[in-house]
Amino acid sequence: MGRSCGAGGTFWAGKGTPRLGSNGGVKIQIRALYQTEGYRVENLNTDGERAQVELRWDERCKPRCGQCGRPMRINRKTKQGALDLPLASAGFVLLTYEAVQGYCQPCTRYETVRPLAIVEQHQATLRLMRQVSLLCRWLPVTRICELFPVGPSKAYRWDRYILQTELPAPCLDGLEAILVDEKAIHKGHGGFVTVVLNARTGELLHLAEGRRKESLESFFTKLSAAQKASIVAVGMDRSGPYRAVVQEQLPAAEIVFDKFHILANYHEVIDRLRRRSYREANGESRTFIKGQRFNLFRRPENLGRDGKAALTKLLAANADLHLTYLLKDGLQQLWGYRYAKSAAKALEAWVEIALEAGIAELGRFARGLREAKAQIVSFCKHQLTSAKIESFNAQISRVIHKACGVANLDYLWLKLRQASLQR
Ligand SMILES: [Zn+2]
User: Tell me: the pLDDT tens digits for 302-320?
Assistant: First the structure.
C-alpha cells in the first residue's frame, strides 16, 4: 500500500478507567506501538494481565493491490483476532481487527489486508512469532510458556514457520571445499543422518536421513554442473559409501580423509591392545588396566601426577601397548606438514616402523594408512579439518535437546541451518 493516511490515533483510556487528557491529565500516546498502514487504534482495554487492542480500518484509506499497487475497491471487512507481543505487565495481548478484502479490477484479483503483518494461519502478529522463534534458539520449546502465553506445540509451529520463511536458501555457488559426515541422532530417525557442510564457512548445505549412498547422492542432484565443478576438495571419513559417491559425482575433486576420524581409528587400536593385556593379566593388575582407558587417551600434558605414574606403570608392563602409544605422537605430526611430498615421506617412515613392530593390530592400521596415503597428504594442499564438523556435531545434540525430541527431520534441518549460519 502506498499512501499514508493518518493511520492510528490517540488512545484515550477506555471503559472502567478515568478519561484522561481532555481535562489536562495524562495523554497516553500508544499509536506508535500499533502503527500499521490503513488502521487506527480504536480501543485498548486491560486489567493489567490481559489486554485487548482494537484496530479499525481507517475509512479514509483504500487498500492497495500487492501486485500493481493501485487502490482496490473494498469488497468486505471481517472481524478477526490475533495474538501480539506483551504490553508491560499484560502478557496476553489480543488484537482484534478488521481484515479488509479488496478487489483489484485491472488485475482481476482479490487480496486481503491485515495489520501488523498478521499471519492468518497462526493467528498471531509476525513480530510476536519472531520473538518466540528467537527464544527457541536458546530455550527448549517447553520453556517458552514462561515468557509468552504459548504452549510447546504452538512455539514449535511458529518457530518452524519463521525459519521456513526467513532463513536464506543454502548457498551452493562457488563452494570450493565441502565436508561430508554421518551423525548419529536419537530415536525415531532411523539412527543416522548424512550432513554436508561448506568447509570454509561451516554453513550446513544438506541433511538427509541415513548414511547410505543415496543420502549423499541427493545432495549432488541439487547442484548444477558449474556448482559441482567449483568443488575441488571433499573432506570425509575413510569408511562408508561416501567416497564412491564423490568419485562418481566429482571426478576432478580431491578427497581428504579426515584427521580426527583417523586418530579415532588409532585410538581403537590402542584400546584393543589395552583390552588384550587385560585379558592376559590376572588379579590386581587386571583391575588396574581396566581403569587406565582414560589416561591412555588424555593428552600427556593434561595428566596429573597420579595419572602419569599409573600410565607409566601400564606402559612399562606392556611393550606392544607402549610402542603403539608412543607412535601416536608421530601419527598426529603427519598433519603438520606444509608440503605433500614431506608428508608422504613421513607417512611412509611411520608405516615402516609400525609394520616392523610385528603387532597385528598396529600392522593392520599401518597398511590401511598406506593405502590412504594420497587422501591423507592431500590435506597439505587443502587444509581441511573436520573441526567444523566436530563442533557442528555438538550443536546437533544441543539442538535436539532444545527442540525436545525434534518432531521431524525438516525441523531439524531448519534448526541446524540456523545454527550453522549464526555461529
Ligand atoms: Zn492490481
Answer: 888 888 888 888 887 788 8
